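Changelog-adjacent note: as of this version, every example in the card shows the full chain rather than a window. The one below runs 401 residues end to end.
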Amino acid sequence: MQQRFIAEGHLIDSGILTNILNLIVEENEDYNILRFDIGKTNAEPSRLEIELICDTAERLSTVSKKLINLGCYEVGPPAAVWKRAEKDAWVPADFYSTTNHRTEVWNGSAWQAVVDQRMDAVVVREAGGLFCRKLRDIRAGDEILCGGEAVHVYPPQRDREGGAFAFMDNEVSSERSVESVVSQLAESFREIRNRGSKTIVVAGPVVIHTGGAAALAELIREGWVQGLLAGNALAVHDAESVFYGTSLGVDLKTGKPTHEGHKNHMRAINRINGHGGLRQAVESGDLGRGVMYETVQAEIPFCLAGSIRDDGPLPDTQMDLIKAQGEYAEIAKGADLVLMLSSMLHAIGTGNMLPSYVKTVCVDINPAVVTKLADRGSSQAIGVVSDVGLFLKALARELRG
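Full-length structure tokens:
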């Protein structure tokens, strides 16, 4: 059994050719390279035509689906198969499960782009367009893409034009020069702001604990950030630090626990509750600085996603998980860069919503956080092993220059 495939792009220096051939070998199948045209300039793509050879139709189907996820598409692809959902949140068993890579579907005469790309979703055809939808959002009667033969995905490829991210790869290493990363990241911040695009920050409470709050607040105040995604804890400890100079009861200047300081986060929650929320606390003048103060003042969108661990929570925290996911996705939509700061839960959750072409930088003192993010499918994430407070201070300093 044979099936011909085509792959196009910067196949060699992006490692895509190696991945394709390794996959076939690891699956114990055979192949013939029918034609390989190598791009000779940075702008000129390479083009591979390869024949996959398997003993059975079942094996051919299995390996073909894996090749398609690597960016291959069938020669003479069949028209897409669409089936109706019979119930809400229930689709035909052979539905196509999306990746986070840019995706097109062959409609019988042309490739048609899928909108709102994200991983772990289904493709719905409606009003002439194709859209990614979470399973929970499917309604009876929706047309669902089934099978994967008519799909063309576009894995991220290495930047050959020398952009701000060309120097970085997604290897997680404590040996990476933080100064170099900060410099290149600042350049990317400038490029994105100059063209009117969006940078989104995902932040955990460690930003406050490590003394990075003032630097993050500066980035927001100076217009480098267009959206903030976090949990209840970031806002609580930010307010605690402003009101009492502590974070989880630890004095941020001396690093020592304060007398009955363990109560301060609850006192901060109570104080915000008395105003009715963060915005009201800012408007009253009580909350006069900090990350959440600058966020409210700059009128940038934010979402605090609640969890079972939350004290309070603050009135601003969205405790409906489905609504919080929706708000996260809406704020992140259209972002060119997402900076993730020491929050494994929210980083992975946000990563699941992002197309793979969105530049993603994850800063954490624990290399396992970045590894886990990549393992969940966000392979575009660049890992920086560093104290997040020191990293933010260095970034703010670089952007001032």
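Structural remarks: The chain has 13 helices and 20 strands.
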